[in-house]
């Protein structure tokens, strides 16, 4: 699941290495329009609709925060299932 | 605040759009963003074509063109207009009111109410509320509501945040008394602490335009705009809309006694496709009931976007049929407002080009 998120981030901003960043927003890897594109991609891939209230930069600042938002919006935590 | 009206109807809607069309792709070189990045955004946000005025055309020109069209087609008689309300944020002048300029050029009667209202994205709902209130007066039987904006003139063409969505246009809505015995339910809210979320900082009395205010400056994201240009804090506006609009609609539905499935169409302000689909998901209505195709075809002309959504998507259908609709506007102010009412066999519901 984390790999899928990384793949989608790379498709939006291929010039950045998201694995090396601790905060995508603060470090300038994503802006608000990138977040919109990411939400649209995640909505489509997981067949969900991330709540508009959750679309704030802090929720898209790291892989873990994105994972948390996906789970909050109904995506099953595949990582937990694998454990 | 909740509002309620009775025995009033919308009898006709006309949208007037300028003929000049700009394509999103044609402006990609203006922006400090890669073309591929912008093209991906186009799909999500619904950017495509927008209509803008040619330099020199004013809001009064668009309104007069539309009113003359109605007079010539015998869809409206000058002598029947008891009140005329223009909602705009791009008046011809600071003074006099643009509604009065229109009144003079059309030689309308003196015995009438005529006023401008400064409102933006929620301006259609605010204008309808004003019209319904005017119709409570014994001597007022027909109100002409004009919505018009030409804000493309105030947006930097190097600002990808705002430029791709802004269009120009005008609409004319006829509202009158009727013995239909039906209720109209309204809600209106305001939060002036968000006044700077959508603002043109310079050009009025607080900060008159000068060489300094016309200087383009780059923001953190790479957009260039001056203090004379429209500035939109996109994140703030998006979050405000997602936070405030769904509960307003739910409360209004509850007040009206209708449930969300009873509503045939949700005719909302058209900021962009992404925002509208998120609203539809949150409120729990299918996308087919909430048209989101105005930005991609014409651009967002502020308060004109709701009547454009009506005339473009329903058009002739509304001349022959009756629908229960929920309309909503939200944006500059910050202001947000909604109405639930029946639209029943309008006399006209058209979209025409300004020539």
Can you tell me about this structure?
The complex is a heterodimer of chains A (83) and B (355). Chain A is mainly α and 83 residues long. The model of chain A has no long low-confidence stretch (mean pLDDT 89). Chain A starts with a helix and ends with a helix. In chain A, helix 1 packs across helix 2 (32-46). Chain A is globular, with a radius of gyration of 12 Å. Chain A has a single domain, classed as Non-ribosomal Peptide Synthetase Peptidyl Carrier Protein, Chain A, CATH 1.10.1200.10. Chain A is built from 4 helices and no strands. The longest helix of chain A is centred in the middle third of the chain and has 15 residues, at 32-46. Chain B is an alpha/beta fold and 355 residues long. In chain B, helix 5 (234-256) packs parallel to helix 6. In chain B, the strands form 5 sheets. A 6-stranded mixed sheet of chain B has the order 6-5-7-8-2-17, sandwiched between helices. Chain B has a single domain, classed as Peroxisomal Thiolase, Chain A, domain 1, CATH 3.40.47.10. Chain B is 27% helix and 28% strand. Chain B is globular and about 55 Å long. Chain B is built from 9 helices and 17 strands. The chains are: A mainly alpha (83), B alpha/beta (355). Chains A and B meet through helix 2 of A and helix 1, helix 5 and helix 6 of B.
């Amino acid at each position: 699941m984390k790999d899928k998120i990384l793949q989608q981030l790379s498709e939006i901003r291929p010039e950045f290495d998201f694995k090396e960043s601790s905060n995508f927003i603060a470090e300038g890897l994503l802006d608000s329009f990138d977040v919109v594109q990411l939400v649209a991609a995640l909505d489509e891939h997981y067949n969900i609709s991330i709540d508009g209230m959750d679309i704030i930069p802090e929720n898209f600042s790291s892989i873990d925060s994105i994972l948390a938002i996906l789970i909050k919006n109904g995506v099953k935590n595949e990582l937990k299932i694998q454990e | 605040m909740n509002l309620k009206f009775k025995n009033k109807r919308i009898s006709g809607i006309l949208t007037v759009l300028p003929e000049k069309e700009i394509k999103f792709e044609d402006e990609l070189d203006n922006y400090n963003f890669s073309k591929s990045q912008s093209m991906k955004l186009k799909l999500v946000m619904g950017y495509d074509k927008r209509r803008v005025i040619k330099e020199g055309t004013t809001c009064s020109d668009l309104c007069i063109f539309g009113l003359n069209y109605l007079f010539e087609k015998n869809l409206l008689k000058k002598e029947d207009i008891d009140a005329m309300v223009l909602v705009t944020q791009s008046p011809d002048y600071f003074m006099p009111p643009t509604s009065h300029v229109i009144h003079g050029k059309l030689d309308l009667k003196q015995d009438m109410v005529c006023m401008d209202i400064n409102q933006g994205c929620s301006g259609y709902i605010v204008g309808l509320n004003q019209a319904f209130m005017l119709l409570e007066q014994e001597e007022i039987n027909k109100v002409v509501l004009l919505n018009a904006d030409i804000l493309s003139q105030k947006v930097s063409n190097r600002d990808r945040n705002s430029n791709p969505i802004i269009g120009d246009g005008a609409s004319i809505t006829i509202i009158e008394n009727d013995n239909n015995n039906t209720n109209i339910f309204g809600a209106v809210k305001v939060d002036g602490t968000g006044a700077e979320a959508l603002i043109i900082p310079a050009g009025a009395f607080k900060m008159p335009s000068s060489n300094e205010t016309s200087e383009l400056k780059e923001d953190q994201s790479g957009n260039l705009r001056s203090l004379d240009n429209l500035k939109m804090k996109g994140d703030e506006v998006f979050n405000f809309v997602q936070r405030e609009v769904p509960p307003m609609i739910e409360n209004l539905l509850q007040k009206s006694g209708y449930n969300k499935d009873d509503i045939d169409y949700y005719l909302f302000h058209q900021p962009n496709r992404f925002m509208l689909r998120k609203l539809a998901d949150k409120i729990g209505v299918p996308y087919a009931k909430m048209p989101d195709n105005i930005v991609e075809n014409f651009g967002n002309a502020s308060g004109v976007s709701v009547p454009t959504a009506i005339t473009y998507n329903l058009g002739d259908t509304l001349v022959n049929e009756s629908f229960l609709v929920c309309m909503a506007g939200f944006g500059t102010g910050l202001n947000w407002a909604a109405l639930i009412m029946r639209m029943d066999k309008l006399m006209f519901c058209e979209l025409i080009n300004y020539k």
